[in-house]
Design brief:
The complex is a heterodimer. Chain A is mainly alpha-helical. Chain A contains six helices and no strands. Classes of the chains: A mainly alpha, B alpha/beta.
Chain lengths: ~160, ~190
């Protein structure tokens, strides 16, 4: 029983130890800030990330990213904060949800549809141009024979 | 096995439908207002802030105005459109000067203190202004540029966001369709 309690306490100790994040070094902070800022759009620039831009707003956004990284927030949490203020527009990579599905999957669907149509068309062309082998031709039945005879009769009558 | 000579296949219906849908999307993208970005912050709680007042430097806290309709205007001295809308702001504040349920607050954005003060001396002033040193307040409110104006209801919820100068129809609508109903405690949705 005592052993079980000790093992339990050891697990709790290990879990607590891992849950308390060690303070990040300056290098780690800068790396995190760079990675997160690269995914955020500078709201007042033309297709530039917060990391690339030197606009005042971008610098202020970067400062906020840094503040939040130091506070221990994850990249997703920081992005969620900016999205809650500016909407999906603020992230350079749109989230896979709602109408954004069109952006993510639309081109692949169109590619699939186009590929299918091209495949069908090519198959059609091949079928038109390939002569049928005699063995693949179905034998003529009585109705067929009658039809041919009638056609020949009318042809001969026309000749005369 | 007879096939109708002009039988329409499924893909022949589906493909034009897809093309039409795409054209509608492209049309919307091309001819819609490119500067319009749906405000996600409307109908969410107004972010609280504590900021120094422009003249005296005393701390002003948004939460202290809870229970009032707050009109929050972001501006800068270098912004020409802010100067255009400034008389409208003065008029609105004058209109509700005797109404204790209304307060107007200016947030000076990316500016220098002396230039902001000069601007107010030049254009006139009848309401309080705070300074946003680090841009934190502006980012909390999802500001792209100035002027931008928010109207916050008595419960501290953002009920309206206006991008650009408050002039003409925007001015009339702001009073009739936003401030007046909110002062009466009416809902804006519907």
């Amino acid at each position: 029983m005592v052993k079980m309690v000790l093992i339990g306490l050891a697990f709790i100790f290990i879990a607590c130890d891992f849950s308390i994040a060690a303070p990040l070094s300056e290098e780690q902070i800068q790396k995190e800030v760079r990675e997160i800022s690269k995914t955020l759009r500078c709201a007042v620039c033309q297709s530039e990330s917060v990391w690339e831009s030197n606009a005042e707003l971008a610098l202020q956004m970067r400062a906020i990213v840094r503040e939040r990284v130091i506070a221990g927030e994850s990249g997703d949490e920081i992005r969620a904060y900016f999205i809650s203020r500016y909407g999906d527009f603020i992230v350079l990579k749109p989230r896979v949800r709602g109408i954004n599905h069109i952006i993510w999957f639309g081109p692949f669907i169109l590619l699939g549809v186009a590929g299918f149509l091209i495949y069908r068309r090519i198959r059609g062309w091949i079928a038109e141009r390939t002569p049928t082998a005699p063995s693949e031709i179905a034998p003529i039945d009585d109705a067929g024979r009658e039809k041919i005879a009638k056609a020949l009769q009318s042809y001969n009558a026309g000749e005369k | 096995m007879n096939t109708a000579p002009f039988a329409i296949k499924t893909w022949q219906v589906f493909l034009p439908l897809v093309i039409v849908c795409l054209l509608v999307v492209f049309y919307h993208g091309l001819y819609g207002n490119p500067s319009y970005i749906p405000p996600v912050i409307v109908n969410t709680p107004a972010p609280d802030f504590i900021a120094p007042e422009l003249y005296e430097g005393k701390a002003v806290r948004l939460l202290d105005y809870k229970g009032k309709v707050v009109m929050l205007n972001f501006w800068a001295s270098w912004c020409r459109e802010c100067a255009l809308e400034h008389p409208s702001l003065l008029e609105i504040n004058q209109r509700y000067a005797n109404d204790p349920r209304f307060v107007m607050l200016g947030v000076n954005y990316q500016d220098k203190e002396n230039l902001a003060k000069e601007y107010l001396e030049q254009h006139g002033n009848n309401f309080q202004h705070v300074r946003d040193f680090s841009g934190k307040i502006s980012i909390d409110y999802g500001i792209y540029g100035v002027p931008e104006t928010f109207v916050i209801d008595q419960q501290g919820m953002i009920r309206h966001k206006s991008i650009g100068p408050i002039l003409g129809e925007t001015y009339t609508n702001l009073i009739k369709e936003v401030i007046e109903p909110l002062l009466k405690g009416e809902s804006l949705n519907g």
